[in-house]
Every structure is written in C-alpha cells, then in structure tokens.
Amino acid sequence: MMDSMLIEAQAISKRYGRDWVLRDLDFRLAPRETVALVGPNGAGKTTLLRVLAGLVRPTQGSLRRDGRVGFLANPPAFHRHFSGAENLHYALRLDGQAASRALVRQALEQVGLPHDKPVLSYSSGMKKRLAMARLRLQNPDIWLLDEPEAALDSEGRGLLEDLVNFARASGGVVIATHDKSWLALVDRVVELRPT
Length: 195
Prior knowledge:
Layout: E1 7-16, E2 19-29, E3 34-38, H1 45-53, E4 60-65, E5 69-72, H2 84-94, H3 101-110, H4 124-138, E6 142-146, H5 154-168, E7 172-176, E8 188-191
Parallel strand pairs: 3-7, 3-8, 5-6, 6-7
Antiparallel strand pairs: 1-2, 1-4
Helix pairs in contact: 2-3, 2-4, 3-4, 4-5
C-alpha cells in the first residue's frame, strides 16, 4: 500500500443477509483528489461511503484510512429542537473541537442560515446547507458526500461547489451522485453496478 493515500480499500465486499451490495471492490483516494461515485440506485454508492467512513464494517476485505473523516449523509441528521448554532457547537464538541460563537455565526452566515432558528423549521435544502457548514468547521482530511446536491437550489449548489474546492485544497473528496454535471468537476469517476 502507498503511504500517501488517504484511503486504501482492497477487495471490499459487503453483504446484508444473503444480498451482496459490494463485491471485491478496490478503491483508493489520494490527497487533493476528488472522486465521483456513479451508478444506478442499489449499486452500493451509499454503502461504500458508509464503509469508507467507518460507519459500517465490510463483510470481507481490508480498509486503511489516513486522516480524519467527515461524512455528509443524505439526508443529514440533526437534533431537531436545537438551533443551527447549537447543532454546530454540539457536533464540534463530539469531534473533540471547540469553536467560538463568532466562528459558528460566520459559518452559518456563509451558507445563508439564521443563527437561532430551530432545525425542525428548516427545509431539506436548509438542512443540507447546515451540513455543509458543519463539515467546513470540522475540516476533515477525508470528505465523504452522499448526494450532496439533493434538495439544493442554484445558490446552494454554488455553495456546495465552493465547499468541494475548499475540501480538495488540503484533503480528498468522494462524492456519490446522480448529477452528471459533477463529472466535469472531479478528477476521477468510479462507476458502480448492482451485484
């Protein structure tokens, strides 16, 4: 294995019951690389991201990660009764980080969200924007994004592209997507097919 890789996965397989979702998949992610995962529904894009994030154990194969992982789920999860700011402070504390009120307020302003509105009143697009703010504050080495463009308007899409450019400046990015417009913006495309 190459020491410079952020992710090195070899012969990764994942089975749920009798159904194989992934079979003998090799995957690598280099620093400052952006990779798009494409394929039809059921091809294993989300499962692969969850395996790479360490949220799901592979049934077979080996996985090595070098660096901190950030995962943007689709849909992203938050404490509904917390405000956007409270959610960001909470996520950072869980991550062993601290952020000043001013830094959290700035992160919310960057994505066009109010500071004190409870998340239960957020639209799907607002939740996706809050997830982008959370990831930017966490600033991981490995950015795993599951259909990040879903529920975003054109302004939100611009914020997402800015986030990906920010991420790839120092880390590596994997984007699972059905949006073909991403293919011109990434370094490499990995196509998954149902097993």
